[in-house]
Design goal:
92 residues; mainly alpha; 2 domains; transport; mitochondrion; hydrogen ion transport
Length: 92
């Protein structure tokens, strides 16, 4: 905890919070090009994988199916939470 005291902004004020929010915004803005490049690199590798039938074995196909099921489960769970923890529908 002693090492991290240098990162604590004192006194805490509205101006300090605005400065930190601005720094966070520009830090995230600066990371967009790297994330953009990484996205296209991943997409290109996925395209190459889909082109070659030899690369698709049972392990790869089952992993892709498992990830698809997991994404659907997270979506369905979010829907239930969004409806107020009801499975059948919204409260009217």
């Amino acid at each position: 905890m002693e090492r991290n005291k240098t990162y604590i902004k004192e006194p805490s004020s509205v101006e300090t919070c605005q400065l930190l929010a601005k720094q966070l915004f520009y830090t995230r803005l600066a990371s967009i090009p790297r994330r953009y490049e990484a996205f296209w690199k991943e997409l290109d590798s996925l395209k190459e994988l889909l082109k070659t039938k030899e690369a698709w074995n049972i392990e790869n196909a089952s992993m892709a199916a498992l990830i698809g099921v997991e994404c659907y489960a997270w979506f369905f769970g979010g829907e239930i939470i969004g409806r107020g923890f009801t499975i059948t529908g919204y409260h009217v």
